[in-house]
Amino acid sequence: MLISDLVIMVWHFTIPRxxxxxxQIAVILLTTAAIAYFCMASDLGFANIATEFSYLGFPRGTYxxxxxxxYIDWTVTTPMLLLELVLASGLPLSDxxxxxxxxxxxxxxxxxxxxxxxxxxxxxxxxxxxALFYVWYVxxxxxxxxxxxxxSDYKRSFTTSTxxxxxxxxxxxxxxxxxxxxxxxxxxxEMIFYGILDVLAxxxxxxxxxxxxxxxxxxxxxxxxxxxxASAVGAAGYDAEKTSRFGRxxxxxxxTLAAANSTPETQTTPAKRGMFTSKGxxxxxxxxxxxxPIDNAPRNGAATAVST
Length: 308
Known about the structure:
One of its GO terms (biological process) is phototransduction. 56% of the residues lie in helices and 5% in strands. The protein is mainly alpha-helical and 308 residues long. The strands form two sheets. The protein has a two-stranded antiparallel ribbon. Strands 3-4 form a two-stranded antiparallel ribbon. The model is unreliable at 228-260, 262-289 and 301-308 (pLDDT under 50).
């Protein structure tokens, strides 16, 4: 987990600003998973719960380790995995919010069910499975349809990533039923089972998904933050780096700005030639970008001084 986290963290610095969100989400979820596995490797983050059934020769009521830190990990990482998918699909915000909610329902009901010693745990398991079915529905029906609107490349990428994650998530309820639910397998076998699933569903999935996205024109998603317009020049707290393209710098006088207003500025940025180059695959269009002069005319309602 940690090695994958560091690799993607370095990788994300090679991506242009405004297109790093998918790599940053991957860093968030892998960092969380690395901390969780450090905790479990240190034999911390578990509670002893009496089993509902006898298992492996132990009588019913024998205490078993329930790793609640794993569920804390999933509470952070599974919404991040879903965001990795749906942010590249154009899915409406209302669907994204509801999707994240039912994902949290799935995780929290799994945690509560694992801590319940009676057969009521299977009621929570049922709620969690119902929430998982809703997550699958959103990803496989409106999610794929929404990605198709963006283009065939987006649909292909989203469908592939969704199929991988959906299949892996199908195995988590199986692991829960065999481990925290029915206590069919030992805690050591549970650790191996969940460990393999987590490696496949987190670092391996992230690398596959990010590589798939590197072939797409991410500017179509309009996820760039910190957008700037000429009308913002002169406002308090503006970004000097952004305003420098208009010829204005906090250390310069107003004459510099006036000179910039008189002549449009033309900038051309080379396109990306590889996945790890510093400019980004679709960092700029092939055509020059023309920055129009700033309109210094008074706005409507602004007072104009008249000399007499």
